[in-house]
Structures are given as C-alpha cells and as structure tokens.
Design brief:
With 392 residues, the protein is an alpha/beta fold. It is 21% helix and 32% strand. It has three domains: 3-107 and 234-301, FAD/NAD(P)-binding domain (3-Layer(bba) Sandwich), CATH 3.50.50.60; 110-229, FAD/NAD(P)-binding domain (3-Layer(bba) Sandwich); 320-386, Enolase-like, domain 1 (2-Layer Sandwich). Strand 4 (77-81) and strand 5 (86-89) form a beta hairpin. Helix 1 (13-25) packs parallel to helix 7 (287-301). The longest helix has 15 residues, at 287-301. The protein starts with a strand and ends in a 6-residue tail after the last helix.
Length: 392
C-alpha cells in the first residue's frame, strides 16, 4: 500500500499549488497526488485564452508537483475511510495518509440532450478535441453567455469561424455586469461577427447527418456543425459525502480549510469557506482562489495553521477588451459606473447599503490591490465619493 504523509485527491492548479505550500513548511514529507486526468497539473485559463493566440501547449504545465510529489494519473479515488486514513481508487488500490486534501474541483453542468456530441469545455482533453475542429471553416453554436461562452466565442471568431452564442439571459455576462454593460457586449460581439441570440433557451439538439439543429423554446432553430456548452459547473462532492464530510454547495471548510473530518482539508472550486471581508460563505471558481487557496491548504496541512482570508480576483479577455475583478459582482446590487470612456475603459463599483462589495476594473490594469484595500474600508460609499477613486 502506498503511504504518504500528505495525499491530494485532484490533479489541477489547486493540487499543484498545495504541493508548493507543503514544501514551504515541510521540505521532506512524502506527497502523493491522485488525478483522474491523464495529464499532469496544468493551468486551465489558457485553454480558452492563450492557447488560441499562439501560446505553446508545453508552457501551460505546472511545475511544483513535478519533482515534489508522486503523481498517479488516470486514477479515480472512489472511497475515503477517515477512521483508517485510507483512500481506495477505482482499481482497488489503497493509499494511506496522515493529511488529506480534497482538490476535486467541479464537473460541467450538462444538458438533458445532445449526448457526447456536445463539447462541455473544461479540460485539456476538451481543448484538444475542439482545436482541430477550428482549423477549417465551420459553424459553431456556443451555449452560454458566461466566462467560457464569451471567451470561446471570441477565440473561435478570431480563428475565422462562424459563431452563434445562445443564452437565456438578456446580455453577455448578465450574471456579473450591470444591464447596460451586458447590452453593450451584445452589440460589441455582433460587430465582431458573432451571432448573439440573447434570451434564447435551447430545448433540444437534433442531429441531421453531420449537422446539428438547435431548437429553442421560442420556436427558433439554427443549424451548425459543432456544439459547445459552457453553462457552469457542479462541485465534485460525492467522495466527501460518502466519507461523512459536511457538504453544502461544496465541501464546507473552516478558516484553515479543514473539513468536518479531522486531518482532511479541501480547497479550490470545491471548497465552501467563510470570507470575513464580505461576511458570507462562498465557493469561488477562479484561478486566483485555486492557487492561493491550494497553497494555503498545503501550508496548513504541514502545520503552519494560517487562516485563509484572501479576497480573490478573476479576469477575462473579450476580443480587444479585458477586465479584472475583485469581490462580489452581483448585478442585483447597486452599481456605480465611473467610465473614462463609456463601456471601453472604467470602473464599476457594487454596493450594498453603502458597503462596497465588489469592483470591476474594465480595461483598467494593475489596480487589483487598490480595489481590495477599498473593499475593506468601512465606508459608507456613495456614487459621489467613489468617482475617481480608482485608478489609484
């Protein structure tokens, strides 16, 4: 039986960052990593960003786990026994541990139709399936108007592909941005050549030879060559649940990223943690949280015991526009827009009864730390005293 001082289930950015965190505190303790992917840990954002702009594939692979952990690829952890401190994989192999990290991430939400013909874009395998399809001239349907939908539509359109975006909301990014900015993005994407079908809910996908007909509840129908869906993820919690670990919209952890079971930690997309700055429990599905949370979990597993109170950031590229954001971007909150150039460059603030909850830096760069500091200020904030606060 393989025996590790530190065992990590998951093979993504969080897992790799956890290895780095462990090694900061414990340079010698044995580390094992169980991943159901066939690739060693890699950076996920380039899959919908840099790899479409000439970034070399070999540059996306992470390095911390390469020399510092024994990686078991193509291996799925099936059960955890917290009492005996053992994990059993899908081949019946047992692994023992002193400390265990669940970095199991999430799996794409799937449509009740379309089967395997729909590409649910999340992994390197998904990229390697999609990239060759964009070599010739094809028609793509992109279901979803969030991060994956907006980024892939941009990338495919830049490759000379014919792209239609379909989503039930009124605008691209409507779950994050104020209505006027989301509406602007609809027009902006149309100007770039994307057919934006806002307010459309796909009700069925019918294969017709080598083509696919997407039927919408409105009665509309479009025919394409390939279908992609980016409609969010569900946290992978089944392993935790069967081990008796508390689960509620992810794996519930304390400020040290420890679960309800002793010596078992969780971090990254799957972890539900209390954020003292925003005074909410949240599960964050972005790169910054994966890296900082994974590293913090690794340090805590190795005995450092430092609370994880990081206010994470996220970012995206949309054709020649881009943004960084910090905190809670909820368009149902009061929003204050401070544009240098309307919808092209500026800052959007998200307020709740005078308290600053989030900051959107739209084509404004190197201001994330300033935005974090501003969110921690007590306020009260108003549209008047926020004008001109950023850039700092």
């Amino acid at each position: 039986m393989p025996s590790y001082k530190y065992l990590i289930i998951g093979g993504g950015m969080t897992a790799d960052a956890a290895v780095a965190g462990i090694r900061e505190v414990d340079p010698n303790g044995s580390i094992g990593l169980i991943s159901d992917e066939n690739h060693p840990p890699y950076n996920r954002p380039p899959l919908s960003k840099g790899l479409w702009k000439g970034k070399l594939l070999e540059t996306i692979f992470r390095q911390s786990s390469k020399e510092n952990a024994q990686i078991h690829l193509g291996t799925k952890a099936e059960t955890i026994d917290p009492q005996s401190k053992q994990v059993i994989d899908d081949q019946g192999q047992s692994y023992s541990y002193d400390k265990l990290l669940l970095a199991t991430g999430g799996s794409p939400r799937k449509l009740p139709f379309g089967g395997d013909e729909v590409i649910y874009f999340r992994t390197l395998d998904d990229f390697q399936r999609l990239r060759p399809l964009a070599e010739g001239r094809s028609r793509f349907a992109m279901i979803g108007g969030g991060f994956i939908g907006s980024e892939l539509a941009s990338a495919l359109c830049d490759q000379g592909q014919e792209v239609a975006m379909l989503f039930p909301e009124n605008g691209i990014g409507s779950l994050l941005f104020p209505a006027d900015l989301a509406s602007f993005l609809n027009d902006y994407y149309r100007q770039k050549g994307v057919a934006v079908l806002a307010g459309e809910l796909v009700s069925d996908i019918e294969q017709r030879g080598e083509e696919f007909a997407l039927k919408m509840k409105s009665g509309r129908e479009i025919v394409v060559d390939h279908v992609i869906a980016g409609i969010g993820i569900l946290p992978n919690t089944s392993l935790a649940e069967t081990a008796g670990i508390e689960v509620d919209n992810g794996i519930v952890v304390d400020k040290y990223l420890q679960t309800s079971q002793t010596d078992i930690f969780a971090a990254g997309d799957v972890a539900n943690i209390y954020n003292p700055v925003l005074d909410i429990r949240q599960r964050v599905e972005h790169e910054d949280n994966a890296l900082t949370g994974g590293q913090a979990a690794g340090r805590n597993m190795a005995g450092q015991a430092t609370p994880y109170e990081h206010l994470s950031t996220f970012y995206s590229d949309l054709f020649d526009l881009g943004y960084e954001a910090v905190g809670e971007l909820n368009p149902n909150l009061e929003t204050v827009s401070d544009w240098q150039e309307p919808f092209r460059k500026g800052v959007v603030y998200y307020l709740d009864q005078g308290h600053l909850r989030g900051v959107l830096l739209w084509n404004i760069w190197d201001q994330v730390d300033s935005a974090r500091r501003l969110i921690t200020e007590p306020g009260p904030f108003t549209s008047e005293n926020l004008k001109g606060r950023l850039p700092d």
